[in-house]
Amino acid sequence: MVFLAFILFSAFLAGMFWLSTAPTEAVSLMLSYAAGLSMIFLPCTLPLVFIVVPLSMGHGYKKGLAIAALFGLGLSITLSFYGVAIALLGGWLGLTRATEWMFMLAGGAAFIFGLAELKLLKIRMPAYGGRTPKFIEEQGDYLKAFFLGLFLGNAGVGCPNPAFYVLLTYIATVGDVFQGWYLAFIHGIGRATPLLFLSILGILGVNATQSIVKRKLAVEKFIGWALAYIGAFIFMNGAFGHDWYVQSGIHGAWEKVVEITLGAKFGEIIEHTHVVKQSGFMTFGNYVLVFLFTVPLIWYFFKRRKEIASLPPETPPETVAAEKDRLRRFGVIAFIVILLSFFAFTQLFPKIVLPLVTKEPHSNNSR
């Protein structure tokens, strides 16, 4: 049992390391699995820990492990159905339209959910609310765990991390039902891995859920900023298209960074240059991206300032001073991020990086 827990924890660490270093455009089984692993940190799926761990405790090692595994199996099956549905939708819309619509919908959803995690918007996040159908409650231990996994596999589908959005977009653009099924199923196994690991710890008498609860607020903020910023970028890929991605200079800059930091095997293997058709509309997209990057920072700053100003009079002065100091530091960081974003997306990438990695199409007057 201890050895199995070690294997699961090692798989979790390896998957998280891979997800943090590999380019997410390289969609594969490993990305599907690693994206599933990272879902444990999302507030929408975190409550599953407090369901499967107590469910598997108090039954002995073998039965407890079987209950946790059946819960993970049900979770994976439900997610595989989502993969099939997305693949069918992509096949119906067609390759180009599916790509654009999936990027816009996924990016827009990620951006909105990110703002909600930062408490800038009040949205009821799709999460487990503590109620299960009576039919499930009446089942035995094994069937109950399996059906709970099927039922709760829906938790977190509406607010996954950005890597899962990339996976869904890939499934839609390919439009292959079988590929959509097994990629989503592998993603479900990734989600179930940390749950199974925590269940084993619970069976062994180690309560690891308390440390997760203590870091819940920090995790929510991190996920919120990540969803907002990566969601904004994904949305832009759908709204302005892949040509904007190339013309913005971001594509070329990313390739160079990947090649320098991770080696050529992580970059695009075939050496190439990008041909870009200049378009005022696509150039305007860079300013839209800066706007989407700026809004959450300014909004969060003024919201926090209002919250600090409305603190009760009995609040200790040192607490108020600490909050104001923390807000000032955030303001400085936000100001720097806004300036760097404006310079990078309107000057550095399109005017300096882009000419280095692209070639202009020949005009009729060229000699």
TrEMBL record:
It is found in: Membrane. The keyword Transmembrane applies. Its main location: membrane. Pfam families: DsbD_TM. The chain crosses the membrane at residues 31-53, 65-95, 101-121, 142-168, 180-201, 222-240, 284-302, 330-349. Keywords: Membrane, Transmembrane, Transmembrane helix. PANTHER family: BLL1027 PROTEIN, CYTOCHROME C-TYPE BIOGENESIS PROTEIN HI_1454-RELATED. This is Cytochrome C biogenesis protein transmembrane domain-containing protein. It comes from Candidatus Azambacteria bacterium RIFCSPHIGHO2_02_46_12.
